[in-house]
Write a structure and sequence with these properties.
about 0% strand, rod-shaped, three-stranded antiparallel sheet
Length: about 375
């Protein structure tokens, strides 16, 4: 029979491991309602903190975006002003180019006149050097009298003065032409330089406008993403609040059940008929819940199970109590099944189960236990509070 029992335990162990894999893959280790409530409140606090931080980040980014939008408005105004200046400068350049063109035409005409004057001056000078003296003497000697002589002398002087004046006018005209050309060229170069500077300024401001617009767009994307995160946090907070409300309701129901159990009818231990396997099941549960607790803690856990069996508000069998939905965490986590498969309960666990099943209770009529938390009162034994 021993090999059969060992094989049965091995099969049970394998089945238990499969059960563990399935149960732990889709569920979290079961805890008491109060523990779940505390965890839910802590998670909600963290989510609210993250939500608040996200909102602060959004406000900061919105402030940066608003500042950039103000800068963008100023830059756009600057760009418009620079563009207007450039347009005005282009108009001035066009006017100046037209002026230069007109002046060049006038200069061309003046140069042609100067050239004509120059040719006349050359002929006149040639005449002066070659024949002027003889002509003048011939004119003077041909005079018919003193009056005629004086008139011709005066005429010769006027011709000489005219020649001198023409020469000076030629020189002055050439000088004005050269100065006007230099002045117009300098003005044109200055305007061209201003145009290049204005174009560079326009390009610079346009680049700043584009960069600022890109930054604003970047902040808009970040704000949108942060708002999406904030909405997710808000939804999570609402979900957590609903979960907390449900857990609070469940805890209140458990506490009400505990009070009801203390006031409700209770069977005597002599009225209970234990089924085969109840001792093994209770001992293994005691091992899972209080294996590391002192012996008194082991007895107390067994007493809680038996108190429920005796109470009219809970199932009236050990199996019914232990496997009642979401009551003992080792059931939900699969640890009880593993302990049953491997027979992990110690002799002390069996002894504690025997005492509890005989009616011994060191926690009175308590039907719940958990690790200590602030505000929870009850009977403290080892690492548990019984209430």
């Amino acid at each position: 029979m021993k090999p059969v029992k060992r094989a049965g335990r091995q099969i049970a162990a394998v089945l238990c491991m499969v059960f563990l894999a399935v149960s732990t893959a889709g569920t979290v280790r079961a805890t008491t309602t109060q523990e779940k409530l505390d965890k839910a409140k802590e998670d909600k606090k963290k989510t609210e903190s993250a939500l608040e931080q996200t909102k602060e980040n959004i406000q900061g980014m919105q402030g940066e975006r608003n500042s950039l939008q103000g800068q963008l408005s100023i830059l756009n105004d600057n760009l418009e002003e620079v563009s207007r200046n450039l347009e005005e400068l282009e108009s001035n350049i066009a006017d100046k180019e037209q002026e230069i063109s007109n002046t060049e035409a006038a200069l061309q005409e003046a140069e042609e006149t100067v050239e004509w004057q120059y040719e006349c001056m050359k002929k006149r000078i040639k005449f002066i050097y070659e024949r002027s003296d003889a002509v003048y003497l011939e004119m003077l000697f041909s005079s018919e009298g003193l009056g005629d002589f004086l008139n011709k002398s005066q005429y010769i002087e006027m011709i000489s003065a005219y020649d001198h004046r023409m020469l000076e006018e030629y020189k002055e005209t050439r000088k004005q032409i050269e100065e006007t050309k230099e002045k117009l060229v300098a003005q044109k170069e200055e305007l061209d330089g201003l145009r290049e500077e204005t174009k560079a300024e326009q390009s610079k401001v346009a680049g700043m406008v584009q960069n600022t617009a890109d930054n604003i767009a970047g902040y808009a994307d970040q704000i949108s993403e942060a708002e999406h995160v904030a909405h997710a946090y808000e939804a999570q907070v609402k979900e957590q609040e609903a979960n907390i409300a449900a857990l609070q309701k469940q805890l209140a129901e458990e506490q009400a059940m505990s009070r009801l159990a203390s006031k409700s009818a209770k069977r005597d231990i002599s009225e209970v008929t234990f089924a085969e396997g109840d001792r093994e099941l209770l001992a293994q549960l005691i091992y899972c819940e209080a294996g590391a607790e002192p012996y008194e803690g082991k007895v107390a856990v067994g007493a809680v199970v038996i108190n429920r069996v005796l109470s009219s508000v809970y199932p009236d069998t050990v199996v019914g109590v232990i496997y009642q939905n979401k009551q003992f965490s080792p059931v939900g986590s699969g640890r009880l099944a593993l302990a049953l498969a491997e027979g992990r309960a110690t002799q002390a666990c069996y002894q504690a189960a025997d005492e509890a099943m005989s009616g011994v209770s060191n926690v009175g009529n308590c039907v719940y236990f958990r690790t200590p938390i602030p505000g929870l009162t009850g009977i403290a034994i080892g690492g548990h509070i019984f209430y």
